[in-house]
Write a structure and sequence with these properties.
Elements (H helix, E strand, L loop, with lengths): L16 H14 L4 H11 L13 H4 L2 H12 L5 H10 L8 H15 L5 H15 L5 H9 L5 H18 L4 H15 L6 H34 L1
Length: about 230
């Protein structure tokens, strides 16, 4: 029975050339493509802006596999677009409902493309700052709390931010005073007598127990997410 083949994904020029090129090489190796096959499959995979290479360049630039690769690399490689990624980094801010983990991964990606020639150690010095800057605007107070803890690396900044966010969520519960006031107003309008205070005390005790349970779960979730990111 013949083995299944890896399907080549499309490339439109908007995603990372390096990532797609690695994907293409993996497909070519596993599927045992010849150079002629590689040229045909690469041409068939180009779409959108990337497909413009067929009509805005001469046949010499696309007539062979190696020439086509060189042409695409010159247009879409990270080194050629480093300035674009640096500009994206400067204006990158955390989106509405975006998780901290997603922001962490995107900052890491942008840094890799914006500074392709920097060593990993050199990137660490600037990645953490960009992550904390991305927390500003709508989350300025939250970003300040992260900065006050002076994280040295991006992973450390993420761990601190995850913990702070978990604690923040744990205290954002309805205030008992507001609930009691609403109950009093309801009594005045309906004429019904208030329930015994003992029940209110029991209710508050149950809420405190539930809050402690929720905080324990959040802390465990934060530790789990951080460990998954490390691995």
């Amino acid at each position: 029975m013949p083995r299944s083949r890896i399907k080549l994904q499309k490339f439109d020029g908007s995603e990372s050339w390096e990532s797609w090129w690695a994907h293409f090489q993996n497909c070519a190796l596993y599927n045992s493509w010849s150079e002629r096959d590689e040229l045909a499959f690469m041409k068939g995979a180009l779409t959108g802006n990337a497909a413009q290479v067929f009509w805005d360049t001469d046949l010499f630039a696309t007539g062979s596999f190696r020439k086509l690769v060189d042409t695409l690399r010159s247009r879409y490689s990270g080194e050629r677009q480093a300035e674009k990624y640096r500009a994206e980094l400067q204006i990158r801010r955390r989106k509405y409902a975006e998780s901290l983990s997603d922001l962490h991964q995107d900052i890491r990606r942008l840094i890799a493309f914006a500074y392709p020639k920097l060593t990993a150690d050199a990137r660490k010095e600037i990645t953490c700052d960009h992550f904390m800057n991305a927390l500003n605007d709508a989350h300025a107070e939250f970003a300040l709390k992260v900065k006050e803890r002076a994280p040295m690396t991006l992973d450390e900044a993420l761990r601190i931010a995850l913990r702070l966010e978990a604690w923040q969520k744990s205290i954002q519960m309805p205030k008992n005073e507001d609930r009691i006031e609403r109950s009093r107003q309801k009594i005045l309008t309906t004429g019904k007598q208030p329930e015994p205070k003992a029940r209110d005390s029991v209710g508050r005790s149950d809420q405190i127990k539930q809050l402690k349970t929720d905080m324990s779960k959040m802390s465990a979730d934060v530790n789990r997410q951080y460990e998954e990111l490390k691995n």
